[in-house]
Amino acid sequence: MISTNEIYNVLLLEFPYFKKINEEKRQLLCARTQHFIEGTDFIPRKGMELTNRMLILISACSQQLTLAFSKHYDYAYFEKIIVYPEKYLSTYTEKYHTGEMNTAGIIVLSWEDFYKGIKIDNDTHNVGLHEFAHALEFMDIANKDIDETFSACLDKFTALADHYLQHQPDKPLFRSYATTNLSEFFAVATEYYFEAPKEFAEREPDLFDILNKAYQQNTAPKARKITTNTLPKPLSQSLFFGDYVTNSNLIIEIGAYVILMVLSGVIYTKMPVFALLFLTGSLYYCYKYWFKSNFTLFESDVHIHIPLIRNLVKSGIYKKLIMDIHIDYSNVLYVSTDEYFSDELDSNFERKRAGLKYTLCYWDQGILEYAKLSTTNVNYDEVLRFLYIDKKVGTRLNGIYKKYR
Q1: pTM for this predicted structure
Q2: Looking at beta carbons, which pairs linking 119-124 to residues 24 or more positions away fall under 8 Å?
Q3: Residues 317-355: tens digit of each pLDDT
Q4: Is the domain of 92 the same as that of 9?
Q5: Distance between CA atoms of 364 and 229, rounded to whole angstroms?
Q6: Whole-number Å distance between alpha carbons of 317 and 193
Q7: 8 Å CB contact between 111 and 42
Q8: Which residue, 195, 211, 289, 301, has most beta carbons within 10 Å?
Q9: What is the mean pLDDT of the chain?
Q10: 310 with 303: CB under 8 angstroms?
Q11: Are residues 246 and 373 in the same domain?
């Protein structure tokens, strides 16, 4: 087994990213690099002999992308890495490649090109970062284990990137290969995020900001920061979509809490300890599952009503009770739409669609939050088109990412 001490020494000498992070993160990177090596099958090709140094550098490159993830950082789906000494002829494209990501769970690398990519860390060409970015994106698309924040931000990035590719600037920041498709755009943007962060942040702040949230790192700390706070008041009262019933929700909530209190009081006379556990558990489930935040879409922002008990919890953080907040669309990552059906059958003996359930994922004070909306209005196209095209928000229909042009 390769020791963390050996990993530390190799990275300190040959891995530029290692010198940019603090000691705590260096120790974490070493531990995760060791874990990745132990769980991955490295396969040499063309008579190549893989040394510990090579295994360390390839594994550390994978963990560079996921260092800030609390879990799902080890690319569990990708169990094999094939390493060629130099550019190789791909059996898939019949062209010479420097690297590729295979959806069967294999990553292929040219060692010569990989090593050049990590040694020169400011030329925006890094085949390792490129292919491991593809791997993360594929795991998200294929519903494999992936970091929740990364997944949500990838939806937003795709909407922004699609808009960028349709309206390319006269002097684009990214090299031409990024325009191949949205997947390549993401992989190339990842290279720029780590190797040219200052220029990236200055020229394309929206794209840089969402990658900052996705990778949960800050590669350009001195760059102009994009404000991500919630809006103090609505920008517009022009309602676009939603049926807002704040007062009704509040009355139902208070009624439920009164019933829980009465039940707890009755139980307390017989079993005091159980009554306390019952009340605590009930309030927890109210907070976690029973009363969800809901939302309304306005032309210029999103109005979110937070249930009472969630507000009571948040008030300890925000120092004041915030019943309703307004979120700018730049902080809305995606809206997921799912159909629900009635028991009634149509002429084809299939259950009739009764309505839609929307879930809105947004970024608030550095945390992912969710809001719900259910409606019998089944015309989702107008809503999703508005979100994707006009507001650059990721959109999903029945779990599948949906793009609009």
Answers
A1: 0.89
A2: 119/14, 119/16, 121/16, 121/17, 121/194, 121/195, 122/195, 122/196, 123/195, 124/175, 124/188, 124/191, 124/192, 124/195, 124/196
A3: 555 666 678 899 999 999 999 999 887 777 776 778 789
A4: yes
A5: 7
A6: 32
A7: no
A8: 211
A9: 90
A10: no
A11: yes
Q: What is the per-residue burial (b if ≥16 Cβ within 10 Å, else e) of 86-108?
A: eebeeeeeeeebbbbbbeebbbb
Q: How far apart, in whole angstroms, are the C-alpha atoms of residue 214 and residue 374?
A: 28
Q: Is it the case that residue 62 has pLDDT exceeding 70?
A: yes
Residue 226 has pLDDT above 60, yes or no: no
> Does 263 share its domain with 203?
no
The residue among 204, 226, 248 that closes a domain is 226
Q: Which of 226, 260, 285 is the last residue of a domain?
A: 226
Q: How far apart are CA 368 and CA 378, in angstroms?
A: 27
Q: Are residues 248 and 367 in the same domain?
A: yes
Residue 252 CA to its chain's centroid (Å): 33
- Please indicate, yes or no, whether residues 31 and 84 belong to a single structural domain of this protein: yes
Tens of pLDDT, residue by residue over 192-202, are: 999 999 999 99
Residues 253 and 216 in one domain: no
Residue 363 lies in domain: 239-401
Residue 362 lies in a domain: yes
Residue 125 has pLDDT above 90, yes or no: yes
Q: Are 33 and 61 within one domain?
A: yes
> Does one domain contain both 27 and 83?
yes
* Cα–Cα distance for residue pair 123/108, rounded to 1 Å: 22
The rounded distance, in Å, linking the Cα atoms of 207 and 132 is: 19
Q: Has residue 140 been placed in a domain?
A: no
Q: Which residues contact 293 (CB under 8 A, 6 or more apart)?
A: 304, 305, 306, 307, 310, 369, 370, 371, 372
Tally of CB atoms within 10 A around 166: 9
User: Residue 343 burial by CB count (10 A; 0-12/13-18/19+): exposed, middle or buried?
Assistant: exposed
Is 86 within a domain? yes
In a domain, 379, yes or no: yes
Distance CA 386, CA 360 (A): 14
- Per the structure, how many domains does the chain have? 3
CB–CB of 395/384 below 8 Å? yes
Phi, psi of 258 (to 5 degrees): -65, -45
